[in-house]
Amino acid sequence: MLAHLMEWLNLGVRWIHMIVGVAWIGASFYFVWLENNLNRSNPREGLSGDLWAIHGGGIYHLEKYKLAPPTMPENLHWFKWEAYSTWLSGVALLCVVFYANPTLYLLAPGSSLSGAEGVHIGLGSLFVGWFIYSFLCDSPLGKRPALLGVVLFVLLVAAAYGFSKIFSGRGAYLHVGAIMGTIMVGNVFRIIMPAQRALVAAIAENRTPDPSLPAKGLLRSRHNNYFTLPVLFIMISNHFPSTYGSEYNWLILAGIALLAVLVRHYFNTRHDSHRFAWTLPVAALGMLCLAYVTGPAQPPAKIVYQPLPGTAVGGHRADEKPPEPVAPPAQAEPAKVAGADFSKVHDVIQQRCSVCHSATPTSQLFSVAPAGVMFDTPEQIQQQAPRIKAQAITAPIMPLGNITQMTQQERDLVGAWIDQGAHIN
């Protein structure tokens, strides 16, 4: 029951995080686009530009003041809770997924760190990352945006490398993303919102607003904008083990983040000219190169799949009478195969994998098979052979935290069986 409740808690928190994250990132993209597309030719007095737009059957006219209108409107919309909610739900998700069971999900298999030490490092890195970033922005380096960007990139890559040595691949990626998310929300909470409050207060007190504060807020807002695409990749990276499961996962993350920044830069500057249009084909080529270098050394032999029996998928063949509902077996008997190879592989799968990946998991972590992947029958094992190769052999990220103590010899055995065609009879 606890595993079931944790699964639904994970679902709820993850869904909230996605919803508020979309709202925050969408607002960020929109306002950067708006700033870049203002009509600045001959604006009215006091304005820096305006823009006409049509959406949803209506026509809108937006104006931006150089500093502020003579009097403040009665209703002024603030954009802050999207950022705060995204960060709070993100930290909650870290707690549910990684910190609730750090030895399984957070730490690298065989790590000498305790679970508590891993959690402290993870949480501490969020705040250390923010303070280093803020210090650099307030230093003379902050007046040289391009150089500051290079320094920040190098530091984040260094963090990814360090995390990859103590955390699991997923844990390393998510903590780099969490540092970036903390920087982004810190910019909103510590820089952007105070600048906006100071602007509103100056107008209310009939003082001339300090123009440096909005400029500083705009700079941090642009930083947030460039962070968004790398953070979005990290949010979905747990579905792609060839990235976080690689021996060089930190380098892959650096490459994808750099390509994402190039793409974002094009969209941030295309209003002015298309001189950065080259970033799009370069990014596409870069992704192809990363896909190539992270691929298996050699393709396995072609697998001749055996049809799944009806009971394996809960169905029946058209010429058969539907079977009576029965409880699925805890563990299927090995197939009668010629030779010993598959029987040994079957034993390994049953001992190391089927505790979770079964119609009736015996692990306390899951009430149903994760991702619906089951290894109860030889046919099911064969059908999942490419997935087994990707996640247990090429990138040894399964079993989770190697909780069932799968040995390298067992991985080699399963890998050789798949490379030879994954025959089960």
Describe the structure.
By secondary structure, the chain is mainly alpha-helical. Among the domains are: 77-294, no CATH class; 340-418, no CATH class. It is built from 15 helices and two strands. It has a two-stranded antiparallel ribbon. Helix 6 (169-204) runs antiparallel to helix 7 (212-236) and helix 14 runs antiparallel to helix 15. Residues 311-320 and 331-340 have low confidence and may be disordered.
List keywords for this structure.
59% helix, 4% strand, Urate_ox_N, electron transfer activity, 425 residues, Urate oxidase N-terminal domain-containing protein, mainly alpha
Write a brief structural summary.
Helix content is 59%, strand content 4%.
Task: Break the fold down into its secondary structure elements and pairings.
Blueprint (H helix, E strand, L loop, with lengths): L1 H35 L10 E9 L2 E8 L15 H19 L2 H4 L9 H24 L6 H22 L2 H36 L7 H25 L4 H4 L4 H21 L9 H15 L16 H4 L27 H12 L25 H6 L1 H10 L13 H12 L6
Antiparallel strand pairs: 1-2
Main beta-sheet annotation: 2 strands, antiparallel
Count every helix, treating DSSP H or I runs of 4 or more residues as helices.
Answer: 15
- The Cα radius of gyration reads 27 Å
Q: What shape does the CA trace take?
A: elongated
Mean pLDDT level: 84
Portion in strands: under 5%
| Structural classification | mainly alpha
Widest β-sheet, arrangement of strands: 1-2
Characterize the quaternary organization of these chains. Answer: single chain
**Ends apart, CA distance between termini:** 38 Å
Helix content: 55-70%
SSE arrangement, N to C: HEEHHHHHHHHHHHHHH
Number of strands: 2
Which stretches are low in confidence, meaning pLDDT under 50 for 5 or more residues running?
311-320, 331-340
